[in-house]
């Protein structure tokens, strides 16, 4: 097999031929679906005449091909495993083809495939070429008419993009529906669903008074899990009208829930397809965090109708154009309808633990990559989360009003077009009247920038000087000396020794108590005047840029910030820094073989938090959570897996013991009898109560475990049940944990989404017996390696969240994951390339683990690899 080749952004050329209109006909059959296509094509006005026509096609059996109705001779076209090339075509012509495909054999879940009793599609980024021969690239936009034919009994519901225009009966118990989508779209937004589905229906009247029908299609047993998503959809539609002036454009908007799906959900025009885990929710089966995830994803896919569909990407290098912007939009939406500070804390946590790790690892890449082997590998935290941070910085730099003007300009100027990141940024620059030339570097430069800040107080002059230096570490293909300074907003304030905000005077100008300074250069100095006493700076408020901030805070200063900073995010962040320092101290003690101690400053801060009435319980709950093992590891020079785990456990337990009565009181105070609602007030209360229960159980006290057991048995809602079950199952008290796990598994055996949670709880157990449990559960009837949700719940949760056991020194954790990766490489290359990620993060581990991990990667490399896995493994072993 030839080595897969990389594709480069600099080689971009517009397609030689465009498609204006497509008519598709699907005759559905498990193993032999017939797809007929009629494409109205013409030469691209900017490309020369006489070029060959190149169409993509994978795993298709061609049974007919004609131009202008004239069947082609074998010599007139060339076929290989990925392409159909016709040497000569007219300037304008109609191409008709017919192919046969095998949806039932499609385990990659790209193109047309079977899921449960349904047929469904996933075309982004390059799945459409598994359906028919087509110029499957986003800069080719066409209108689509789609006829779906299927068995009336087995496939009563036949859906595609746009509006239904015709339907009827056919011989042999078959029927058809024809759909017409009037908006030109790239092929990646095509969708088809067929099956035995039921719907819930609702309506939304747009600002201009159009009545849109909203439908959520599910299998019958899931009808009682659709209400929340429908509400979320209506909230999102309203929000996009208010926040961005964007109205929905078709008369019908459909969502379908499918069980087998590689990602969370997909924004196909008028027919969003969702992983059932990203849309189905009800209180008995769904935890608070998943309600919020459903709300965010429903909004995200809906928002793509403008940021992605109406204005789409020229090529896949521009992916962040739609994904970064749309993530920013869904984050803003969730912040507006829930608790804004908590949403920010959660988003930053994901960015700092997962995206920073990606940026520091072997697959680090710019938000707009310069080359790729397999584009599916670039739906990454960098493109999504860092991409969203870039848009957030633009909003910070321009201010809300000019940012909105920039968005308006972008949508109106580029409506109906396939465009580039430059088009978005220049709209912002034009509407905002700011120079964003240097800002563009954010899209080109990989790696997490580091800001090193120092403060110098001159008491006599009453001047405080902030010296800020920035640099970006080397990443693969981008040595440190080629990294350039970035343009970024640094939001900050100054506190005095009592925690009061100091009025800011910068360059003779009053700036209130909170200001934004802009960095462009490698070094800056900001001179604050009229500063009456030595201040404590509160830096990078709201996490105003996706950087690592270094400032030599002492613990007293951090405690001051936790207690008094006016910025909620920085109060939380100061608490995290303090907790990190306390854990790091415990790590050093454990490594030196001495008894660790609980840092008194941390204890003091926790005591303060628990004794001070708070008006934001949700933020308080976040403040009481210690940084995760993954985050701690990200901050270590060399990662000591076991010491991190032990130290974090030690600090948790010590806090639990020292503050037991307070945690007990917090637990009691946040019990509630009111019926469950996923409202943010209730979510905050439950979160606080369960955090308290966690500290109580960490003491190992029997009484605490009985509280958990009681909460489990009370069975009020899945949030409380799962929190309690996790504490029981992860404790050493087998006599309590085992029966609870068993009872839960039996009770929910019929519900795949609950079984996913059941799997994840068991495989994240910290005790060393867990490996056998993972292997055992892989043979459980509810597990299937073909179902991505199951793989994520069992293998993903184990490898990412059970660090001590994944990194066992006998290498068994690595071996297990590699075994699964090898099997998935054949079945589902996309999931294989995602699930292997933790095996590639070995750079800062000890030599022994590094060589064990490399050995597993080398074992994987000896297989005939998919493009997806080839690219990741080559980079990891480079
Ligand atoms: N367009 C993507 C879905 C997608 C990505 C399909 C890659 C195929 C390949 C969709 O809009 C998306 O980004 N979904 C996210 C959820 C979102 C809330 C970030 C997902 O599926 O995880
Ligand atoms: Zn998206």
Q: What does this 3D model show about the protein?
A:
This protein starts with 6 loop residues before the first strand and ends with a helix. Strands 6-5-9-3-2-12-15-14 form an eight-stranded mixed β-sheet, with no helix packed on it. A six-stranded mixed β-sheet has the order 29-28-31-26-25-33, with no helix packed on it. A five-stranded mixed β-sheet has the order 17-18-19-21-20, covered by helices on one side. Helix 3 runs antiparallel to helix 4 (340-359) and helix 20 (752-763) runs parallel beside helix 22. The mean pLDDT is 98. It is an alpha+beta fold and 878 residues long. It has 28 helices and 33 strands. Bound molecules: ligand BES and zinc ion. Zinc ion binds at residues 300, 304, 323, 326.
Summarize the structure.
By secondary structure, this protein is of the alpha+beta class.
Q: What is the topology?
A:
Blueprint: E1 7-8, E2 17-27, E3 33-43, E4 53-56, E5 61-67, E6 70-71, E7 77-79, E8 83-86, E9 92-101, E10 111-115, E11 118-122, E12 142-151, E13 157-160, E14 163-170, E15 174-185, E16 192-195, E17 198-205, E18 211-218, H1 227-244, E19 252-258, E20 265-266, E21 271-275, H2 288-303, E22 312-313, H3 319-337, H4 340-359, E23 371-372, H5 381-398, H6 400-414, E24 418-419, H7 421-432, H8 441-444, E25 450-458, E26 463-471, E27 488-495, E28 505-506, E29 509-510, E30 515-519, E31 523-529, E32 536-539, E33 548-550, H9 555-564, H10 568-591, H11 600-611, H12 617-623, H13 629-634, H14 641-658, H15 660-669, H16 680-698, H17 702-714, H18 718-730, H19 734-747, H20 752-763, H21 770-777, H22 788-801, H23 803-806, H24 812-827, H25 829-835, H26 837-840, H27 847-861, H28 867-877
Parallel strand pairs: 2-12, 18-19, 19-21, 22-24, 25-33
Antiparallel strand pairs: 1-23, 2-3, 3-9, 4-8, 5-6, 5-9, 7-8, 10-11, 11-16, 12-15, 13-16, 14-15, 17-18, 20-21, 25-26, 26-31, 27-30, 27-32, 28-29, 28-31
Helix pairs in contact: 1-2, 2-3, 3-4, 3-5, 4-5, 4-10, 5-6, 6-7, 9-10, 9-11, 10-12, 10-14, 12-16, 14-16, 15-16, 16-18, 17-18, 18-19, 20-22, 24-25, 24-27, 25-28, 27-28
Bound molecules: ligand BES and zinc ion.
Residues 300, 304, 323, 326 line the site of zinc ion (ZN).
């Amino acid at each position: 097999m030839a080595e897969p080749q990389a594709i480069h952004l600099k080689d971009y050329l517009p397609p030689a031929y465009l498609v204006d209109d497509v008519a598709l006909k699907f005759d559905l059959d498990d193993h032999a679906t017939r797809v007929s296509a009629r494409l109205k094509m013409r030469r691209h006005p900017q490309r020369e005449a006489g070029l060959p026509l190149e169409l993509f096609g994978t795993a298709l059996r061609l049974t007919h091909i004609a131009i202008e109705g004239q069947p082609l001779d074998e010599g007139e076209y060339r076929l290989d495993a990925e392409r159909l090339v016709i040497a000569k075509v007219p300037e304008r012509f109609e191409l008709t083809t017919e192919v046969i495909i095998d949806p039932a054999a499609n385990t990659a879940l790209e193109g047309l495939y079977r899921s449960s009793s349904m047929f469904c599609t996933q075309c982004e980024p390059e799945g459409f070429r598994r359906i028919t021969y087509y110029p499957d690239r986003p800069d080719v936009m066409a209108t689509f008419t789609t006829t779906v034919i299927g068995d009336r009994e087995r496939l009563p519901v036949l859906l595609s993009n746009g509006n239904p225009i015709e339907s009827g009966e056919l011989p042999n118990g078959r029927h058809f529906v024809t759909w017409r989508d009037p908006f030109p779209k790239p092929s990646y937004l095509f969708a088809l669903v067929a099956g035995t589905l039921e719907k819930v229906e609702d309506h939304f009247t747009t600002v201009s008074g159009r009545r849109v029908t909203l439908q959520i299609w599910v299998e019958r047993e899931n009808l009682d899990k659709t209400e929340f998503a429908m509400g979320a959809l209506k909230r999102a539609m309203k929000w996009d009208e208010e926040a961005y002036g964007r109205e929905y454009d078709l008369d019908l908007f459909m969502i379908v829930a499918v069980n087998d799906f590689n990602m969370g959900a997909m924004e196909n025009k008028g027919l969003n397809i969702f992983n059932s885990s990203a849309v189905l929710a009800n209180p008995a089966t769904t935890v608070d965090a998943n309600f919020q995830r459903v709300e965010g994803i429903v909004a995200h896919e809906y928002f793509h109708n403008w940021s992605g569909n109406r204005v789409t990407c020229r090529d896949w290098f521009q992916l962040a154009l739609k994904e970064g912007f749309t993530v920013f939009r869904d984050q803003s939406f969730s912040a507006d309808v829930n608790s804004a500070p908590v949403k920010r804390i959660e988003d930053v946590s994901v960015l700092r633990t997962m995206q920073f790790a990606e940026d520091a690892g072997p697959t680090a890449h710019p938000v707009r990559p310069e080359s790729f082997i397999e584009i599916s590998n670039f739906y990454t935290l960098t493109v999504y989360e860092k991409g969203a941070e870039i848009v957030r910085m633009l909003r910070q730099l321009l201010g809300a009003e000019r940012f909105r003007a920039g968005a308006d300009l972008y949508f109106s100027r580029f409506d109906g077009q396939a465009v580039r990141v430059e088009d978005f940024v220049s709209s912002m620059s034009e509407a905002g009247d700011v120079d964003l030339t240097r800002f563009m570097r954010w899209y080109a430069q990989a790696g997490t920038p580091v800001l090193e800040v120092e403060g110098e107080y001159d008491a006599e002059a009453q001047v405080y000087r902030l010296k800020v230096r920035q640099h970006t570490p080397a990443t693969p293909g981008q040595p440190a000396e080629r990294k350039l300074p970035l343009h970024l907003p640094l939001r900050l304030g100054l506190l005095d020794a009592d925690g009061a905000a100091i009025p800011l005077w910068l360059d003779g100008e009053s700036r209130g108590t909170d200001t934004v300074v802009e960095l462009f250069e490698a070094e800056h100095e900001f001179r604050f005047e009229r500063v009456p006493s030595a201040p404590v700076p509160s830096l990078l408020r709201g996490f105003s840029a996706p950087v690592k901030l270094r400032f030599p805070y002492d613990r007293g200063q951090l405690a001051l910030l936790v207690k008094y900073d006016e910025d909620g995010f920085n109060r939380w962040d100061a608490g995290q820094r303090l907790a990190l320092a306390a854990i790091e101290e415990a790590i050093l003690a454990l490594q030196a073989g001495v008894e660790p101690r609980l840092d008194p400053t941390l204890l003091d801060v926790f005591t303060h938090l628990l004794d001070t009435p708070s008006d934001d319980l949700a933020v308080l709950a976040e403040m009481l959570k210690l940084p995760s093992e993954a985050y701690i590891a990200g901050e270590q020079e060399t990662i000591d897996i076991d010491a991190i785990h032990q130290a974090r456990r030690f600090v948790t337990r010590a806090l639990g013991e020292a503050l037991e009565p307070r945690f007990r009181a917090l637990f009691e105070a946040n019990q509630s009898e009111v019926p469950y609602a996923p409202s943010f007030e209730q979510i905050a209360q439950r979160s606080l109560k369960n955090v308290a229960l966690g500290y109580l159980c960490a003491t190992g006290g029997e009484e605490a475990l009985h509280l958990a057991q009681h909460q489990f048995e009370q069975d009020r809602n899945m949030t409380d049940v799962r929190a309690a079950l996790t504490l029981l199952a992860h404790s050493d008290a087998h006599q309590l944990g085992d029966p609870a796990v068993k009872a839960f598994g039996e009770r929910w055996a019929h519900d795949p989404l609950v079984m996913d949670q059941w799997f994840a709880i068991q495989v994240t157990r910290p005790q060393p017996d867990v490996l056998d449990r993972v292997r055992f559960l892989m043979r459980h009837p509810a597990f299937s390696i073909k179902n991505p949700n199951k793989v994520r719940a069992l293998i993903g949760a184990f490898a990412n969240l059970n660090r001590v056991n994944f990194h066992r020194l006998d290498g068994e954790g690595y071996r297990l994951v590699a075994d699964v990766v090898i099997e998935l490489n054949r079945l589902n290359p996309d999931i294989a390339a995602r699930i292997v990620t933790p095996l590639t993060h070995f750079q800062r581990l000890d030599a022994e683990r590094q060589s064990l991990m490399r050995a597993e990667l080398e074992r994987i490399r000896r297989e005939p690899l998919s493009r997806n896995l080839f690219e990741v493994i080559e980079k990891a072993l480079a």
